[in-house]
Design brief:
This protein is of the alpha+beta class and 620 residues long. The protein is built from 16 helices and 21 strands.
């Protein structure tokens, strides 16, 4: 393969670590230089010029210049740029500029001797600073090859080994130097696996000098929300000494870590709220709002761990887990809103929410698991399945909006904190739903709305804070405040009920006889164990003048202090009537008359009605 140095048509740079691309526009100058050296004076014969010889020489020179220009132009049309890196010391050089590129897959393209000149057999030139989908091949999946011809010389005393840094390549790639494999990330079909959102990778090339760096790439099929601009290089590779590459990698990692400070801080807050809510729910499992609050705060923590910790594990597995976590986050938010807006008393609504939640989890899990079938189904089948499952998931994003509207329609008397939650939830979910819906099929529709919403951000100390992050954070803080208010009010109500129960228990203990009277011919014993703190059952054993005993057993609906006061009223009435008559029928008739319209919506039940018929005396 001819290079610029061998043809004599290129310019060569001599500065340290400087990359100079060859220029092939100087061939006519070579011709003129030859003329100046050997044809700058007319030929003389015997002391006088030959007639017409100047015109012959001039015509020959012009013809030679024309043919040299045409040959150089042809060489330029089917040439491959050579990147010269001279006197490389302990620094590094970005491999920017034009790379030779070809779609498809051919193992021979890793070899240094093939003809990859631009325009020959489908070879073209692309830059490495952006994917091929953002340059000349949008919506293109499958294989692609990059090649770069490099001529490297080292400075005196420089390390003999060279290291290559790859910022990111979408999705699977394999590196070759002069046809020799030097590294890879992921696995190619038929068992596709890849890693994304990971740190820059480094590969030791050894003591390389001149040759061809070839990169084999495989782009997995696009999902329903891809814009079609991915594929191949996402950043310029860097070549340098091992020490320089290590410094650059540390700098990139530090820059990434600095840009994640706000996200880490917010996620730490999510984790604290999750733990506090979970422990509070464990103390009192009747507070279901606290359980769903714990689940709601757990999911963003799980998403950060899977998506933003740069785990070098299978992206297919991470996608499945993240999709599952997103569905659980959405469902948790539904139930948090239901309990905050006091909609849990609507049985039909709760049944529908349960059915939709189960369907969303199943659809999300199946959608997230599609990546495991990259090798089992055709590209079109995969994309149709992804679109159908997404169509089943997207309606669930409107559930929070419907819940807020239902809460407004019912006009419940809610405190200001809950209405703040409803307002922010409405704004957040409308934005989230619009962004997700507009992303579907974006590579065909080219709708810019999702891009506008995602690119609306500010940068604070290297941290990118987008609109969705602001709204989600505001919603989270509003929910935390509302749940805290709820927990405080709930604890106050519980303390009041506990005091009421304690007072009612004390009243009841006074009314239950501690010592039973002696009745000739009978051995009497009793045990009273209420099912809850205060029971509505009562009994009395009253001795009779004839040597017998009047046994009264009753039950009062309700609980707490009202039930205890009703029991005290009944016991007092029974004891009073027992002084005047010992007939059960007369006592029940008189009690029914006196207790009429005093039960405050409850009822009392005494065994044995008037005349001993055993019917209930039920007054409401």
């Amino acid at each position: 393969m001819a290079s610029a140095a061998s043809s004599g048509c290129g310019l060569q740079g001599t500065s340290l670590n400087k990359v100079v691309l060859p220029l092939r526009i100087g061939c006519p100058e070579v011709a003129r230089a030859g003329y100046a050296r050997g044809m700058n004076s007319p030929k003389l014969l015997r002391g006088r010029p030959v007639p017409g010889s100047s015109w012959c020489v001039f015509a020959a020179v012009c013809a030679f210049s024309v043919f040299a220009s045409l040959a150089c132009a042809e060489s330029q049309q089917f040439s491959t740029p050579l990147m010269r890196i001279e006197a490389l010391g302990k620094g590094a050089v970005p491999l920017d500029g034009q790379w030779q590129f070809h779609l498809g897959d051919n193992p021979s393209w890793a070899l240094p001797g093939i003809d990859d000149a631009t325009g020959h057999d489908g070879w073209e030139q692309l830059k490495a600073d952006s994917p091929w989908g953002a340059q000349t091949h949008p919506n293109t999946e499958g294989y692609g090859w990059y090649r770069r011809h490099i001529d490297l010389t080292l400075a005196p005393g420089a390390p003999s080994d060279v290291t290559l840094l790859i910022p990111a390549i979408d999705d699977v790639y394999e590196l070759y130097w002069n046809g020799r494999p030097v590294g890879h990330l992921g696995s190619f079909p038929p068992r596709v696996d890849f890693q994304s959102a990971i740190p820059a990778q480094t590969f030791g090339l050894g003591p390389v000098r001149s040759g061809v760096l070839a990169v084999r790439v495989y782009k997995v099929p696009f999902a329903s929300n891809d814009d079609g601009t991915a594929g191949g290089f996402e950043g310029v590779p860097i070549l340098g000494s091992p020490q320089a590459i290590a410094v650059i990698k540390d700098s990139l990692d530090y820059k990434w870590l600095r840009g994640q400070q706000s996200r880490f801080a917010l996620t730490g807050l999510y984790g604290i709220v999750c733990l506090l809510s979970f422990f509070a729910w464990m103390r009192d499992r009747r507070q279901r709002l606290l359980f769903w609050m714990a689940a709601y705060a757990l999911m963003p923590t799980l998403e950060l761990f899977l998506n933003n910790m740069r785990l070098q594990v299978s992206t297919i597995l991470i996608t499945f887990l993240v999709q599952f976590a997103i569905q659980l986050r959405e469902i948790s938010q539904w139930y948090v809103l239901i309990y905050l807006l006091q909609l849990e008393d609507r049985a039909k609504l709760m049944r529908w929410i349960k059915v939709i939640a189960i369907g969303s989890i199943i659809a999300g899990a199946v959608d997230g698991s599609l990546g495991f079938s990259y090798s089992l189904m055709a590209k079109t089948t995969f994309q149709i399945a992804d679109a159908c499952l997404t169509f089943l998931i997207l309606p669930g994003e409107a559930i929070p909006i419907l819940l807020v509207l239902l809460g407004v329609i019912r006009r419940r008397r809610l405190d200001s904190a809950r209405w703040i939650v409803a307002s922010i939830a409405l704004l957040n979910d409308v934005t989230y739903a619009v962004s997700n819906i507009s992303q579907q099929g974006e590579r065909f529709t080219h709708w810019p709305l999702a891009g506008w919403l995602q690119n609306a951000h500010v940068t604070v100390f290297g941290n990118t804070i987008g609109l969705q992050l602001v709204l989600r954070t505001a919603l989270f803080l509003a929910i935390v405040y509302a749940v805290l208010r709820y927990a405080i009010d709930y604890r106050k109500r519980q303390n009041a009920l506990e005091r009421e129960y304690q007072n009612a228990k004390e009243v009841q203990q006074v009314l239950v006889p501690e010592a039973l009277p002696a009745v000739p011919g009978f051995d009497l014993a009793s045990a009273y164990r209420p099912a809850r703190e205060v029971g509505g059952d009562f009994f009395q054993i009253l001795p009779m003048d004839g040597g017998g005993a009047l046994v009264v057993i009753g039950d009062v609906s309700g609980k707490g202090m009202p039930a205890a006061m009703t029991v005290s009223l009944l016991v007092g009435t029974v004891r009073t009537l027992a002084h005047y008559t010992q007939s059960p029928g007369e006592i029940l008739t008189a009690m029914n008359y006196r207790m009429l319209n005093r039960s405050a919506g409850g009822f009392y039940n005494l065994p044995g009605g008037p005349g001993g018929s055993g019917r209930e005396a039920d007054d409401r």
